[in-house]
Amino acid sequence: MNEQEEKPPILKTWTNVYTLVIGSLVLIIFLLYLFTQSYK
Predict the structure, then answer these.
(1) Could you give the CA distance from residue 16 to residue 13 in angstroms, rounded to a whole number?
(2) Cα–Cα dist 39/23, whole Å
(3) CA nearest to 15, candidates 30, 32, 1
(4) Do residues 14 and 8 lie in contact, with contact meaning Cβ atoms separated by under 8 Å?
(5) What is the pLDDT of residues 1-40, one digit of tens each?
(6) Cα–Cα distance between 23 and 5 in angstroms, integer?
(7) What is the residue-wise DSSP string for 1-40?
């Protein structure tokens, strides 16, 4: 890893940040799906 590469502010690696973002998006989509199904 180059010293010029910036580290992410909250997690240790950028892979962890991307995993957190994608996981939260999947969770939001799933919760909205459940919400939609309950009020059909």
Answers:
(1) 5
(2) 25
(3) 1
(4) yes
(5) 556 678 888 999 999 999 999 999 999 999 999 999 999 8
(6) 24
(7) --TTSPPPSSSSSHHHHHHHHHHHHHHHHHHHHHHHHHT-
**Which two tokens mark 27?**
């969770």
Whether residue 20 contacts residue 11, with contact meaning beta carbons closer than 8 Å, is answered with yes
Supply 4's token pair. 């010029």
CA dist 32 and 39 (Å) reads 11
Q: pTM here? A: 0.73
Number of residues written out for the chain? 40
